[in-house]
Amino acid sequence: MVPGNGRDIGQFAAWNLPRAQGYSACVFQLEGALMTIDLGVSLTSQAGGLQGIDLKSMDIQTLMVYVQGRRAELLTAQMQTQAEVVQKANERMAQLNEVLSALSRAKAEFPPNPKPGDTIPGWDNQKVSRIEVPLNDALRAAGLTGMFEARDGQVTAPGGRGTQVVNGTGVMAGSMTYKELESAYTTVKGMLDTASNTQQMDMIRLQAASNKRNEAFEVMTNTEKRRSDLNSSITNNMC
């Protein structure tokens, strides 16, 4: 049961909060409990939502609207943060997919049943343009190193005009062996699978925050409607 205005809130809104002395302390606990249960964070460190507000002057319905409004605000902020996380995960997956595709094209250049020490046959300038440069560009964009033995290789030059030679363990060239290529492919595939699983969990958290925000707005709307209906009923009875 929800107590009336000017009394301890107690088990307000079935959140089973411990009783407190007066509105101010109790509402502070209520907001903190709501955010802790629904968001895993506490209002005590995030919002000055109680400052400058005379909680004792609120009736219980106004208080409910206020609490749900604060809840919706924090959930909206959480959604924005979570959306940014999802966006970054999508960008990372796109980078890894680009690397994996380039590695697949390189693997296709080997004859059937290659030996670990084999290199791509018939290496020439055409294969440098078609295989080496795109793969090295993708590796650099993804920030991947330690994929191969250290060597020189070509990448697209700044401004997109021509190529330039770079050196590192994230660089392929005609001397790259099938063993190196296969190892790099397995590594990147594992990274992509991990990123995909993480992205799915991020999407679930984003949807959960969206559902809770919608729930908060629904509670606010229903509370306002009940208050309006009650006021209309009182007015009609007085006439």
Describe this structure in words.
With 239 residues, the protein is mainly alpha-helical. The protein folds into 2 domains: 12-84 and 211-238, no CATH class; 85-199, no CATH class. It contains 4 helices and 2 strands. The protein has helices at 23-39, 60-107, 125-142, 178-238; strands spanning 151-156, 163-168. It has a two-stranded antiparallel sheet. Helix 1 (23-39) packs parallel to helix 2 (60-107), helix 2 (60-107) packs antiparallel against helix 3 (125-142) and helix 2 (60-107) packs antiparallel against helix 4 (178-238). The longest helix has 61 residues, at 178-238. 21% of the residues are buried. Residues 1-51 have low confidence and may be disordered.
Which features would summarize this protein structure in a list?
2 domains; two-stranded antiparallel sheet; mainly alpha; 2 strands; Secreted protein; rod-shaped; 239 residues
Largest sheet: 2 strands, antiparallel
Strand content: 5-15%
Structural shape: rod-shaped
Terminal Cα span: 31 Å
The overall average pLDDT, rounded, is 78
Indicate the low-confidence ranges by residue numbers: 1-51
What is the string of SSEs from the N terminus onward?
Answer: HHHEEH
Helix content: 55-70%
Please give a quick description of this structure:
The chain has helices at 23-39, 60-107, 125-142, 178-238, and strands spanning 151-156, 163-168.
